[in-house]
Amino acid sequence: MLVKRLTEEQKQEWKKRIEQWCASGKSAAEWCRENEIGYHKFLHWRNRFSPKKDPKPKTAFVELPEDKSDLAGITIEYKDFDIRLSKRFDHSTLQSLIIFLRRL
Q: Any bridge partners for residue 74, and if so which?
């Protein structure tokens, strides 16, 4: 099996092509057609030069610090939930929450 190694010059050429595409503002497919470059080959090189993705997923929830000045509200205990409402809670949100909890 013959393995072809790319030279540094070839890598730099592809990096330059990717930069030209970015500056063009065109879709990858359109740019490839205009420059007579294979679309799938272009995608390979674009992915090769793009920054590596963080393998650790971002969390969807963030713990908010407790506002000590707002503790004079109420706490509702339901099944496995503790729902703490500040004295400035939104009544419509509470109503929606109660409707949702009744369905459980």
A: 85
Helices (H) and strands (E) in the chain, counts: 4, 2
C-alpha to C-alpha distance for 35 and 13, rounded to whole angstroms: 14
C-alpha distances out from residue 7 to 30, 62, 76, 101, Å: 27, 46, 67, 63
d(CA 18, CA 22): 6
pLDDT tens per residue, range 29-84: 999 999 999 999 999 888 887 766 555 666 666 776 766 655 567 787 777 777 77
Q: How far apart are CA 82 and CA 64, in angstroms?
A: 16
pTM over 0.85: no
Structure tokens at 77: 């205990």
